[in-house]
Each structure stands twice: as structure tokens, then as C-alpha cells.
Amino acid sequence: MNAPVEQPLTFHPPSDDGGLAKRLRAAVRGDVLFDRASRGRYATDASIYQVMPVGVLVPASDDDVRAAFEICGELGVPMLARGAGSSQCGQTVGACLVVDHTKHLNRVLDYDAHAQTVVVEPGVVLDALNTWLRPHGVWFPVDVSTSAQATLGGMAGNNSCGSRSIAYGNMVHNVEAIDAMLADGTDARFGPEPAMEASAPRVRELVAGLRAIGERERDEIAEKVPRVLRRVGGYNIDVFNPQSERPYTRDGSVNYAHLLVGSEGTLGVITEVTLRLHPQPEAVSAAICMLCAAIRLVKTLSRTIAVYSSGPVTPSRCQTPCRSWWPNDSHSRAVSTSTERPHSSSSESSPVTTR
Ligand SMILES: Cc1cc2nc3c(=O)[nH]c(=O)nc-3n(C[C@H](O)[C@H](O)[C@H](O)COP(=O)(O)OP(=O)(O)OC[C@H]3O[C@@H](n4cnc5c(N)ncnc54)[C@H](O)[C@@H]3O)c2cc1C
Q: Model-level pTM?
């Protein structure tokens, strides 16, 4: 293995904040936290990285974010949007002004029972949203393990996937529109292509530019973007010619919100997300299978999915169990439970949990 190369890291800006805290306090209603203890708290997230931010803004409204954009733009201070900070690759730490959406920007703004959509602010936590939706008989099924902390803004930011993504897809498959504030302070709504025609000239210009790049690079994108269901690394540059096994939209049309999904806050700060909802499952069944050999697990999984796919119940969740759960003996063991809907089973029990 090669020895690590020493690379000097230059963080921007230098220790003096250039009057940022003072100007922010004069301009916003939310909390402006520049003390060492607060900065220390926001220097970490769920990753292994630790970077002290210049300061923290906890905005009380979108106007606060807009004011921060203006001031940071003038002073040359980068801004970083943050939800629960449960990303694991250091996305929410940096030498910048961290903007925490969780405290105040956490309202459900609109629910459309007919269209089965809901509009939320970025700081709404997934579990809170699903609790809110429960009486309506619908849910948002991108069920990340950190559902008690993860925010919809952060989930859109990193194109989160839940354990049920084989049935429901990831965020990119379930976001209908995104309202965002761009670096120059422009407010824009990104959604289905036809709706973009009503946008402001600046946004139409951006969209036309994106379309042109998509068409120019069409072949390259088709060749290089992996054709996998759960692709969450980087921008969805294949939005004009999707390479995902699951189309991003039901009819294969282009939705510009999908370019912001997975962009990790680099294209704009999300102020509202419109999500597609799904009916709550009528029944829940679970099957747990303990196998000693990985190859048997793979074979059983593929057979089970085939069984389910041909019947009325389809699997929505597949998870490989923790190794420490595996039995010590050389025989495979299986447990299967179900409620309401009976289903067929192969000779080896199913390792699939279905909701
Ligand atoms: C134990 C553990 C289990 C996990 N399990 C899963 C899992 O099952 N599936 C999965 O997909 N992930 C999983 N994760 C990763 C992470 O928890 C999820 O992706 C989660 O949904 C991220 O939400 P968050 O609110 O913490 O986002 P954050 O980490 O705060 O932010 C995510 C990204 O979005 C950006 N962002 C945040 N808010 C905005 C905004 N308003 N506008 C623009 N950009 C914004 C941030 O800058 C960042 O780039 C797991 C993490 C841990 C630690």
C-alpha cells in the first residue's frame, strides 16, 4: 500500500469571520451561533470527519436563508445546508456557515389527498411526516434506518434509499418538485418539464442550458452511468435519458427536480419538497431466514423474489442480516410470520420482509 501523500489543506475563510456574525445578527430572526461550543457541535456529523465551521445559522424562515446568501456572497463565505447531519461521508461538515433547517423549518405545508402528494419544509423529520400522514391512509415509503432523525431536505439532498427501495425506489423516484434558492438568491421551482415554461427568464435560461448539456452528452452518459436501481453517487446527470432500472418518472418524462435530488446542496438550498405518497400497505408479513453460507442466501433470495413476484404479494424489503445473528450450526434455519394475506412459499423459507 502506498504511504499517504501529505497534502496541505486550505480551509476557507481564515479564522476572522469578517464581521459575518454581526451582520447576520442584524439581518435575521433565527439563531446565529458563533461561540466555540456551538461550532464544536456542528463540527461533527455521522461521518469520520471533523471540521470546525465558521459559524452556524438556525434560520427562522426562508428570508433568513436569503439574507445569509447575500451576506455570505459579499464576504466570500461558503454556505452548507444541514438536516440531521446523519450523512456518513462528511457532507454536512465544512469551514463554512452551516445552516441548520431542523429547528424552525419543519412544517408540513400542504397535503393533496387526490394527487397523493405532500409539500414539506426541508427540516421535517421522516418519522414525524409518516405519523402525520397515518390518519390519511398514506405514507412516504423511502424508509431510511435513521427515520427518527433524517429530514426530508437531507434525504432529497443525498438521494436517500430506504430498505424498501426495490418496491418504491429512492428519493429521486418519489420527489415531484423542489423549491430551491439558488446561489444568487433566485427562488426557483423545479418540477416536470412543461411546468418549467412558466418560470422566470433566469430559470428558463438555466433549464435550457441543462437540456442542451444533456443532449450533447447523451451518448457519454448512456455509456458511463451505471444501470443500477440504487445509484446514489453524485448528480442525476442521466435525467434526460435515465439509466436507472426504474424510470425516474411514471411516464418517462423529464423532471428537473431530479437534478437537485442527490446534489448534496451544491445546486441550491431546498426550501420546499413535494413528495409522492403511497397507500399504506394493507398487510404486513415477514420472513426471516438464517443461512450459514452466503451462496445459499443469494440462491434463496432470488428464488423467493421469483415466488413473490408471480403472486399477489411482492417483496418491498430485502435486508441481509447482521453476521452475529447467524447460527453456529451448519444447518440453515428459517422463521416465517405473516398477517392477513397468505402467500406461497418455496421449500426454503423466505428471507423477505413485506409491507
Ligand atoms: C446508522 C445509519 C444508518 C443509515 N441508514 C441509511 C439508510 O438506510 N438509507 C440511506 O439512504 N441512508 C442511510 N443513512 C444515511 C443518512 O442517515 C440518510 O441518508 C439520511 O436520510 C440523511 O438525512 P439527514 O437529514 O441527516 O441529511 P444530512 O446528512 O443533514 O444532509 C444530507 C445532504 O443533504 C444536504 N442538505 C440538507 N438539507 C438541505 C437543504 N435544505 N437544501 C439542500 N441540501 C440540503 C446536505 O448538505 C447534505 O449534502 C444512515 C446513516 C446512519 C448513520
A: 0.84
